[in-house]
Design brief:
By secondary structure, the protein is mainly α. It contains nine helices and four strands; from the N terminus they run ααββααββααααα.
């Protein structure tokens, strides 16, 4: 009840999505009433924390009190949660206006079909769920009103987004899950890319997301997430953990 963080990984945006998912499946009127109360609390907090920029765009503070683009720790994660509120709880012109201005905030940092690294503009652009175009694409899919533009983003992810690490958070399996979820790329093509990357690799050769030669069993940065991603690619009934599907 005192959490003022905004982001999807560790703040109100992710909590809001989980609460909405629970609200949709809980049958008890008592728990539905309570869930609706805390859904409204999360939503109001995100709206209250919005930063209105002089150029008419909107953003929030994220890790280290920074304004960031991206899904895990940035604008897209908050916007995705607010879109889910509009789609599944209550329509609101005021929230829709905030969503549009927040998407505009990210658009101003776009370069062709990708986004620069939030901290090191001279380095390779990030292609990840947490930062970069894959996560931003997840947000743009939610209203699905710019199909041609989304295809451009997907094509750029195919071109530049593979063979760094294999983890879910900022690696090959996360990008593969996002591309399959988008339905903008043939799943067989995605599986072929992943198969080529993993061909001949033993488990000890798989690159996790915590740095060179560091392996772990975590979901987002480790071997569990790699395993999950492979299962997701071949099983149409597995929910997408990167959007907190259930």
């Amino acid at each position: 009840m005192t959490d003022n963080l905004n982001d999807f990984i560790s703040g109100n945006a992710g909590v809001l999505v989980i609460l909405i998912n629970l609200y949709k499946i809980v049958e008890s009127n008592y728990y539905q009433k309570y869930l609706r109360k805390v859904i409204n609390l999360c939503t109001e907090r995100l709206l209250a924390n919005a930063i209105h920029k002089e150029n008419g765009t909107i953003t929030w503070h994220f890790i280290d009190n920074k304004e960031l683009t991206g899904f895990g720790h940035g604008n897209s994660g908050v916007v995705f949660a607010l879109k889910k509120y509009l789609n599944e709880i209550e329509n609101s012109e005021a929230i829709l206006n905030i969503i549009n201005k927040a998407d505009m905030y990210e658009d101003q940092y776009r370069v062709d079909n990708y986004w620069k690294h939030y901290n090191h503009e001279e380095s390779q652009p990030p292609f990840a769920w947490c930062h970069g175009s894959p996560g931003i694409l997840l947000n743009r899919l939610e209203f699905n009103n710019a199909q041609i533009d989304n295809k451009r983003l997907a094509h750029e992810i195919l071109r530049q987004g593979f063979s760094r690490t294999q983890c879910l958070c900022h690696g090959d399996l996360g990008n593969a899950v996002i591309l399959k979820y988008s339905k903008l790329v043939d799943t067989k093509k995605i599986i072929a890319i992943i198969s080529e990357i993993l061909e001949g690799k033993k488990v000890k050769d798989i690159k996790c997301g915590l740095g060179a030669n560091i392996q772990n069993l975590d979901l987002m940065t480790g071997l569990t997430g790699v395993s999950y991603g492979l299962i997701y690619l071949i099983n149409p009934e597995v929910p997408n953990i990167l959007t907190l599907e259930i």
